[in-house]
Amino acid sequence: MPTKKPNKAEEIIKKVFKEPDIAHGLKEFEDLDLKTILYITEEEKGRYFVKDLKSGKTRLVYDETKKKGKPEEIVRQLWLYKLNKIYGYPFERIEVEKSIHFGREIRAKAADIVITKTDKITPYIIVEVKKPDEKKGIEQLKSYLSAEGSEIGVWSNGIEKVVLYRPYPKEYEDSLSDIPRADQKIDDLFEVRRTWQELNPKFDFVHIVRSIEEAALAGSGANVFEEIFKILYAKLFDEKLARDQRKDQEVLFRKYKDPEKTYEVINQLFKNAARQWPDTFELSDKIRLSPQRLNVCVPFLEKVRLFEVGQGELEIIDSAFEYLITEVSKGKKGQYFTPRHVIKMCIKIVNPKTSEYVIDPACGSGGFLLHTMYHAWEELPTEAAKKEYAAKYLYGIDFDDNMRRISQALMLIAGDGKHHIFKRNSLDSRDWTGYEAEEARVEFKKLLHKFDNPADDKENQKSFRHLDFDILLTNPPFAGENKGDAGLLRQYELAKSDGKLKNNVDRHILFIERSLDAVRPGGRLAIVLPQGVLNNTNMAYIRQWLFDKAIILAVVGLHVNTFKPHAGTKTSVLFLQKWPEDKKHLKDYPIFMAVSKKPGKDNSGDYVYKKDDKGNFSYDVNGRKVLDHDLDEIADKFIEFAKKEGFSFST
To answer: For a pLDDT cut of 70, what percent of the chain falls above it?
Structure first.
């Protein structure tokens, strides 16, 4: 009797999925014991085959000589296992590599897996795993559904999955949050009641946003950013109500069998959210998708929990918003997304305390605020304390609607339904008057700087120019001038020369002065600036002005690749401490200087990751690749410098 060959599943799976550029993955199967499901043997020298769970035959999965694997085959076998053992479909109802009928033709294209109805003839569920790219995979899947008249299609690359539902012969494709088990009907998947506690706080938000965009909104003519954000706000509002006010904690945000009912429920949740969290949408606004398209969107979000997500999930949401706004704007807004390793360096150097108020007057998508919150959370002992910090100490202003909404959404999630993110023109005190600025004035009033002269104080409350924040972190927009706007320019010392008002001043110059006005004496700042501000001869007056107003703590020159592909401007981060009222202005003191040589990006703006001596990527404790940059090292060197100089905030 021949000896059974040893199962090399564990060894070969590692080789097949070793390279990070492999689009297939195993996340979908993380709860399965792969080595007991898959049987992989070396049938020929250096060529490894897996036993097909349906036919018992073997299929090539890895060629040692070519160093090439077939991850899609492993994904297919694991889907066969799930369909049979978890969803309960017998193998006699499952076909592998079934030819697809396109009209009268039977083309060479074959569906990876087809589940038939109980008659073992009529296609019921089609599974596509060959196309690892979501967009191409869904397009392929839709063509199969149309050709075969199948009701359900699954696209999966092992990392993500999308379940399409086409109530044939209707023209539109719907979506489901899962496929039915063999003992279920499709109707059993509609109107599934869930409580807030049953929602899943672990999810891939980038995948959710991409899936909504590809499966529901592609070709719809809708403003993708607007409609996804409306759906998100409806979801947030429903979760907050379910958690805090509904006795049974039931969530209403779900797919209903009748698309009209789905639209009625979700749109009403959105309208209530707009009233609950004003200054984000107009009260008269509504979801502008058709009921059918909205019915496709909802299943992608109905199972996940946005409130009370952890830091890792918030970072994923942050990444998804970056993806969304970049896609929608074709990169035009990309400069607003300050690379997160730059943000982390700034926060590490400025070292915000848990009792200090923080502002970003050009907050964009809220990166500085979000990571300041993470920094503070490390010192806070309870979830309640973390929520209070997020809701109380972080402030942001931005005039760009889409970017501001991202900041608001992230702070709503982190701050338990509260935020201090406002749409105002940070540079123009005139924008703080009038009815529409009332809410911002109320929130900022407690942080107004108190003058000795009551008349000055009264005027300050009107303009909200001088504030008492402890920390300011910002990457203001470099582009744009203020040519001819005398009403704005006369508010700034840096807009005057020899007592005369200049005709035009770059926006980032005004932001320097505005930023110093926003912090209390002794307050700390980190501001990203074009390097020319710090070394061009025609900018010497700005440097002199800065010496008069603040202590220069540090200057960190960033690599030219840091902001690519969105911008190639050479930049530096300037770290300041506003002169304390009781401290004599020094004329000579040490300043920390550093230049980044490893930006974590290549010349094309793609991220670069660390590798070990064998060429393998390095991973952090969360399983994420480690960016190859030197900004953490620069921050550590500054901390050594700060302790040596006795800076009180460095401890």
So the answer is: 89
Residue 331 has pLDDT above 50, yes or no: no
Over its C-alpha atoms, the chain yields an Rg (Å, rounded) of: 29
Right CATH for 91-189 from 3.30.360.10, 3.40.50.1360, 3.90.1570.30, 3.90.226.10: 3.90.1570.30
Q: Are 406 and 325 in contact (CB under 8 A)?
A: yes
Q: What's the burial of 255, exposed, middle or buried (CB within 10 Å: 0-12/13-18/19+)?
A: buried
Which residue ranges make up each domain of the chain?
Answer: 9-86, 91-189, 196-300, 311-650
CA 488 to chain centre: 35
Asked if 56 and 190 count as a contact pair (C-beta separation under 8 A), the reply is no
pTM for this entry: 0.72
Torsion (CA) 324, 328, 331, 333 in degrees, nearest 10: -80
Separation of alpha carbons 640 and 646, rounded Å: 10
* Residue 311 burial by Cβ neighbours in a 10 Å radius (0-12, 13-18, 19+): middle
DSSP strand pairing (469-474 vs 394-397): unpaired
Q: Which helix (H) or strand (E) holds 456?
A: helix 454-463
**550-594 pLDDT, tens per residue?**
999 999 999 999 988 777 778 999 999 999 887 778 888 999 999
CA angle centred on 508, ends 506 and 512, rounded to 5°: 125
The conformation of residue 550, written as its DSSP 8-state character, comes to: E
Cβ-based neighbours of 620, under 8 Å, separated by 6 or more: 626
